[in-house]
Amino acid sequence: MSFASNYNYGPAGRAIGVDLLSNPDSVATDPIISFKTALWFWMTPQSPKPSCHDVITGRWIPSGADTSAGRLPGYGVITNIINGGIECGKGSNPQADNRVGFYKRYCDIMGIGYGNNLDCNNQRPFA
């Protein structure tokens, strides 16, 4: 088990009442656990990161450190929360461009605007 698994799976498992550290594969194999962990991750701030929900609903206000790091409200911060250390601050890449394209597609389907700051290309990852 990796640190990343304990970082997410330990707290998520405690929150949903399942020992995910002993059985991390259940997130991929049990649809109920998969849904619960996804919802937990979406709704739960993991300091210093805000929750994805707070970002997308406009409840997150960036600190001075966030602003200095290029982290401004928008879909790009959600990518930063989920995958910042791997993707953010490294300029444009096809995977990130595709993700933004999918986001725009679903916004179009639902008839809602995209908002600003759609990528994390120029954001520093959260510490």
UniProtKB/TrEMBL annotation:
Defense against chitin-containing fungal pathogens. It comes from the Eukaryota. Keywords: Carbohydrate metabolism, Chitin degradation, Chitin-binding, Disulfide bond, Plant defense, Polysaccharide degradation. The keyword Disulfide bond applies. The keyword Disulfide bond applies. This is Basic chitinase. GO terms for biological process: cell wall macromolecule catabolic process; chitin catabolic process; defense response to fungus. One of its GO terms (molecular function) is chitin binding. InterPro entries: Glyco_hydro_19_cat (IPR000726), Lysozyme-like_dom_sf (IPR023346). Residues 33-43 form the Glycoside hydrolase family 19 catalytic domain. It comes from Actinidia rufa. It holds the Pfam family Glyco_hydro_19.
